[in-house]
Amino acid sequence: MFLLTKEQQKLRAELREFVDHEVCPVATELDNRGGFPHDLYARIGKMGYLDAEFEYIGSGAIIIEELSRGLASLGLIVSPHYQCTELIACCGTETLKKKVIEPARRGEQLFAFAISEERGGSDALGVDTIAVKDGSRWILTGKKCWVTNAGVADGYVVTAKSPSAERSRSMSMFFIPKDAPGLKVVENRSMIGLNNSPMGHIILDECSIPDYCLVGEENVGYPLIKPLLNEGRLDMAAVAVGISGRCCAQAVCHGKRICDVQGRLPDTWCARSERAVWR
Predict the structure, then answer these.
(1) Among candidates 87, 90, 114, 89, which has minimal Cα distance to 99?
(2) Which phi and psi (to 5°) does residue 191 adopt?
(3) pTM assigned to the model
(4) Under a CB-based contact definition with an 8 Å cutoff, are residues 71 and 43 in contact?
(5) Beta-carbon count within 10 A of 41 CB
(6) Which member of 105, 158, 222, 224 lies 3.0 to 4.6 Å from 169 by CB, making a disulfide possible if both were Cys?
(7) In what order do the strands lie in the sheet with 214-215?
């Protein structure tokens, strides 16, 4: 049986209080209105929850679950941000780390993980984006699809193949700032039930970035991306658990209100429902 550590239990309790007091009261309004929740994201950063993944190793899923319990879009927003920040902190150049890591942890910057392409779909190896070294810069050409946080992110982590790639798994990873020449965001869309989490495509039209934006070594990006993909799957499971936990809690509350009007439901039903609520 998997049990949370005392630090993780404390983190979850603090998060639950934060979500109950600051997220849940505005969740319906935010979802109905749509658009990225800038103020709420900044508040999450100031509270230290974008840094907790690094303070309490393995706590990212706990944070995402609790945020999703209040507003599902938040879990979807934070997941790729964690992935990118973790990757850069581990494998980025010192120059890149100094520029982006601390602002990312404070919630002053937001990242997006852009690896999917039209031909490859969910196949991480289906990469047609090309990266060519030009002096002290890299020039990238291609298109990335279904990018969460597209249009609001301050930077994108992308995969590309360079001319020196000799194997199907030979790919490189790059960080592209939002103001990089040749970067364009298109087809920004909302998703049902996730109206505050933007999704779109990015086009790299001879996009030029400094050489320090290479993350890891050239042609060895696949070993770096594998654990991030597994982490992303766990994050999406956490989003689903957060949503279902809130749904169950709301159903119990609704059932109790019906009891007040139509008579009491069987005690066994209420007891089972309350035990099912994720605590």
Answers:
(1) 89
(2) -120, 150
(3) 0.86
(4) no
(5) 21
(6) 222
(7) 111-114, 155-160, 172-177, 214-215
Tens-of-pLDDT digits for all 279 residues of the chain?
Answer: 578 888 889 999 999 999 999 999 999 999 999 999 999 999 999 998 998 666 666 688 899 999 999 999 999 999 999 999 999 999 999 999 999 999 999 999 999 999 999 886 677 777 899 999 999 999 999 999 999 999 999 999 999 998 887 776 789 999 999 999 999 998 777 777 889 999 999 999 999 999 999 999 999 888 998 888 888 899 999 999 999 988 888 787 777 666 665 555 555 555 555 555 444
The one-letter code for the residue type at 274 is E
Indicate the angle between helix axes 6-18 and 60-70, nearest 10 degrees: 20
Q: Which residue has the tokens 């159903």?
A: 251
The residue assigned the tokens 């869309």 is: 189
